[in-house]
Design a protein that fits this description.
alpha/beta, four-stranded parallel sheet, 15 helices, 8 strands, globular
Length: about 375
């Protein structure tokens, strides 16, 4: 059985081994709006920087009051845990992450650094041309740094590899629509995190093996079907807690969850424009939302397609874009009569407090779920 959680835990050693094996460079990024295809075409290993749960002894000197993920990532860099990272890119988005990017690069001047502007107003008439231009500059900077020319053939290969990866992830995600899925939300989230720190071509082989494994599995017991909404995540803690109390996350709307693979790149002669259109057209996160308010409708459609019983909205504390966007999410859930529970989390998910809230929420849901009549005999509590 594939252990994605262990793959995530071993990500630092994996990146070090990859560098030894290939002689290539590793480029780190903060958020999944980063156009990995361009870096991959340059022979680099794109790695999403993940936060840990450990005492913060360094970052408060530089980032007082910032959200826990960026504090922890800065802490790891200042402690020398990510010495294998050769370059760092910040794509326009979370300002806390931008502050972390500045602190890290100021303290590590040897790193390749690049700020990539991705328009917040993604539906503007000029957004596609602006991002196409930004990708052109980024491509030139990578060529100067690596000493390699990024050819059309290299971009075509990168697009093909990443499109295949998105297809495989979507194929696995579709299995969660079953009345009794063969995959739990915690395993799915660990799979997503592993996908964001490993070489995509290698990961595609692992995902194909995983699909064959899932085809032989027996479905899990019937559980309360939950949709997870909110800030991006860095581990599977919350999903595991939901499962402990008889639920299962069958779908999410997270930046590093389904939004990471939901749409694909449609090849065209101008490869960089094709990449730009994909990232501008991906499911909206609050920082990239516009007056058209596409995010609430996307959430409602997913809730319908995956037959959810309720939603859990988990907002990272200090995440202002999600805080200001919550009203629109609450509104659409109420209009669709979808029960939901909202809470904020910081560096950890306190098991006793959060577990009590989840258990209470599930106890409110169960009487209305006719398929779970006699639920106390059917669900492992």
């Amino acid at each position: 059985m594939l252990d994605f959680k262990q793959m995530v835990a071993d990500r630092h050693e994996y990146a070090r081994e990859w560098k030894k094996r290939t002689g290539g460079k590793v480029i780190g990024y903060f958020e999944t709006y980063f156009p990995e295809e361009v870096a991959y075409a340059a022979g680099l290993l794109p790695v999403r920087l993940l936060a840990e749960h450990e005492p913060d002894i360094k970052s408060d000197k530089w980032l007082y009051g910032a959200c826990y993920p960026v504090r922890d990532i800065v802490n790891q860099f200042l402690l020398g845990r990510m010495e294998y990272i050769d370059g760092l890119v910040n794509t326009e988005g979370c300002q806390w992450m931008f502050n972390g990017y500045e602190v890290i690069t100021n303290n590590n001047p040897e790193l390749f650094k690049h700020y990539l502007f991705l328009p917040d107003y993604t539906e503007s008439k000029t957004s596609k041309d602006a991002l196409r231009s930004e990708l052109g500059v980024f491509k030139e900077r990578l060529e100067a740094w690596t000493g390699k020319t990024i050819t059309d053939a290299a971009l075509d290969h990168a697009i093909e590899v990443y499109n295949k990866n998105r297809f495989l992830l979507r194929q696995i995600c579709e299995l969660r629509r079953a009345d009794r899925p063969v995959i739990l939300g915690s395993e799915y989230m660990n799979m997503m995190l592993a996908d964001q720190v490993m070489d995509k071509e290698e990961m595609n082989g692992i995902l194909e093996e995983f699909i064959r494994e899932l085809e032989q599995r027996e479905p899990y017991k019937d559980k309360i079907r939950i949709m997870l909404i909110g800030s991006e995540t860095w581990n599977s803690e919350l999903e595991e807690l939901i499962e402990k109390y008889g639920g299962n996350v069958v779908i999410d709307e997270l930046d590093n969850g389904t939004s990471y693979f939901w749409n694909t790149i449609f090849p065209q002669k101008d490869r960089l424009m094709a990449i730009a259109l994909r990232y501008l057209g991906r499911p909206r996160q609050p920082i990239k939302e516009s007056n058209w308010r596409r995010r609430p409708d996307h959430i409602a459609q997913m809730a319908e397609d995956y037959f959810i019983d309720g939603a859990i909205i988990a907002k990272q504390i200090y995440c202002h874009p999600h805080g200001t966007d919550n009203y629109a999410v609450w509104k659409i859930l109420r209009e669709r009569y979808i029960p939901y529970h909202y809470f904020e989390r910081d560096n950890t998910v306190p098991e006793a407090e959060t577990g009590m809230r989840i258990e209470a929420f599930f106890n409110m849901l169960r009487p209305g779920l006719t398929r779970l009549v006699g639920w106390h005999n059917k669900i492992d509590l």
